Amino acid sequence: MSTALEDRRARRVAAEREKYRPSAEGAARLLLLIDTFSRQKSTTANLEGRTKLAKLDFFLRYPERLTVALQSKGVSPEVIAVVTEEEVPIDERMVRYRYGPWDPSYYSLLGSLIGRGLVEVVKVNSRGLGYRSTTKGASFVERLLEDDSWAEYQARATLLRRHFDISGENLKKLVYSLFPDIAGSSWGRSI
């Protein structure tokens, strides 16, 4: 009896881990987001911190939530029309964590991007770190965008850059104020 129970538990744990396994699409999406925020005329531009990255990625993955956030900032319906409302595949779902929406695969995805020389970590201030696409990473994003299936993500990332280039802390507060269902959910719960 104990063996059957242990087997079921092991299968459940394995299924949970598999749900958040890093994917090539996840790495490409994060690289696209980092590149959008770090490509400017200034050579010091970057995306500051994991909290900001996670909240921006939340809006990138959940277009219906991005629409609400853009409306809260008074963005015109014509601009918002760029965002299409689609159902997010289960393998792209995030969980509620300490500072709001989070994907447990971020550490491995960022490690992979950094290890392959597509993203570099930069010191932002005395305590913070940021992420910036390298020349190699920017070239990869340009090739990625030749595939039309990434155009929608690029359009959303551009809207995020234009309207939500604020601190991770302020993005967290925005998410909590606009979406009480997230603020009130328990840690580890799927969003």
Write a brief caption for the model.
56% of the residues lie in helices and 9% in strands.
How would you describe this structure to a colleague?
With 191 residues, the chain is mainly alpha-helical. Helices cover 56% and strands 9% of the residues. The chain is built from ten helices and five strands. It has a three-stranded antiparallel beta sheet with strand order 1-5-4. A two-stranded antiparallel ribbon has the order 2-3. α3 crosses α4 and α3 crosses α9. The radius of gyration is 18 Å and the shape is globular.
Structural topology:
Blueprint: H1 2-19, H2 24-38, E1 47-48, H3 50-61, H4 63-72, H5 77-80, E2 95-97, E3 100-102, H6 106-115, E4 119-123, E5 129-133, H7 135-144, H8 151-163, H9 168-178, H10 180-183
Helix pairs in contact: 2-3, 2-6, 2-7, 2-8, 3-4, 3-8, 3-9
- Please report the number of helical segments: 10
Cα radius of gyration in angstroms: 18 Å
Which of globular, elongated, flat, extended, rod-shaped describes the shape? globular
Number of strands: 5
- Integer average pLDDT: 87
Strand order of the largest sheet: 1-5-4
- Which structural class do the helices and strands define? mainly alpha
The H/E string reads HHEHHHEEHEEHHHH
For the biggest sheet, the summary is: 3 strands, antiparallel
Q: Determine the N-to-C terminus distance.
A: 35 Å
Question: Helicity range of the residues?
Answer: 55-70%
Q: Indicate the proportion of strand residues.
A: 5-15%
Low-confidence stretches: none
